[in-house]
Write a structure and sequence with these properties.
Number of strands: 6
Distance between the termini: 6 Å
Radius of gyration: 12 Å
Structural class: mainly beta
Amino acid sequence: GQISGIILDSSGAAIPGAKVTVTSVASATSAEVTADETGKFQVLQLPAGTYNVSAGSAGFASMQMNAVPVE
């Protein structure tokens, strides 16, 4: 499976270079990727399960989404 998305600020502008961390709830293993110049990110080849996703960048509040399912 995969988790992908776009990191945006409160005005809807992309946040290039944001660090995105995807952590497996079951195993606590994690993967970190960096959003591209348009704010897009992808974490590929994830085993099926439930993941917590966090993102942050200097000068912006960090965000977290819990219990993201991957099939």
